[in-house]
Amino acid sequence: MRAMVLRAPGGPLRPEELPVPEPGSGEVLVRVRACGVCRTDLHVVDGELREPKLPLVVGHQIVGVVERVGEGVERFSPGDRVGVPWLGRTCGRCRYCRTGRENLCGEARFTGYQLDGGFAEYARADARFCLPVPEGYPDLQAAPLLCAGLIGYRALRMAGDAERLGLYGFGASAHIILQVARHQGRRVFAFTRDGDEEAQRFARRLGAEWAGGSGQRPPEELDAAIIFAPVGALVPLALRAVARGGTVVCAGIHMSDIPSFPYELLWGERQLRSVANLTRRDGEEFLALAPEVPVRTEVRPYPLEGANQALDDLRSGRLTGAAVLVVGR
């Protein structure tokens, strides 16, 4: 099979021919049709997440068709369309797994990081952690739902019932969650890179009440803010923008160092919290909600061999919406 392979962090992905994997007990072999390109992929490739399996096939927003099933798999059959998300496996035994917090499992393994992912024509996955893809979403439009959507949805839940919601970093996740937030009756304020007027117009077109640079103050106080950009310097800015009792949610798996800030920014019962990974329940809930909104993902397609270009476009901020690799049909 064709695959784009990471041999060493900091280097480019290399096109290679690899054997098609065999599904083991409890696993499915998925023929990949599309795979979203996520900022977490960028953190893996650039060496900011430091525990990858090497060599590695990156990619964790996989949409494809079950080709074969391993022993004991009853949930899916050949021909079923499935999604494979970031959370690829957990122990199922620890206190986190037993209390509905499997996203915090110390033995969790992640697709495209410790398990080979979807920048290839085939991927092997634990059937228990695959998700049925909602009908009505073409493969390319469904792919961003599997991480940008799922992580954004978990972050939105952590923001509570905030009416005035700020989104810092207007990329793949924010453009999805803005639609969900508007569906829920919230008022959304979008923060982009300073001077990125294209992204600001995009946010307003999707329903943002206000859009400006991340260094600007919104026209009124926020009840909560979600930071999608991996920039620690945004934390004090977001705390300054939220009202007393407000919440700032850091949604990324990696962020640059947070600078020191005066206690007065946190005082007033403001909360600062992170979101770690996702649970299967998050996936089931969000993929049921997305067609109701309905969420419409805006994507830029790339061929499989264009993965390095997609990552570079994401790294440089040249993307509007989400990048998706077109792998097969």
Automatic annotation (TrEMBL):
Name of the protein: alcohol dehydrogenase
Q: According to its UniProt record, which protein family does this protein belong to? A: Belongs to the zinc-containing alcohol dehydrogenase family.
Do the record's keywords include Isomerase?
no
**What's the source species for this entry?**
Rubrobacter xylanophilus (strain DSM 9941 / JCM 11954 / NBRC 16129 / PRD-1)
Q: Does the keyword section mention Oxidoreductase? A: yes
Query: Which cofactor(s) are needed, names only?
Result: Zn(2+)
Which SUPFAM superfamilies does the protein's record reference?
GroES-like, NAD(P)-binding Rossmann-fold domains
- An example Gene Ontology cellular component term from the record? cytoplasm
What the entry lists under SMART domains is as follows:
PKS_ER (SM00829)
The cross-references to Pfam families, in alphabetical order and at most eight, read:
ADH_N (PF08240)
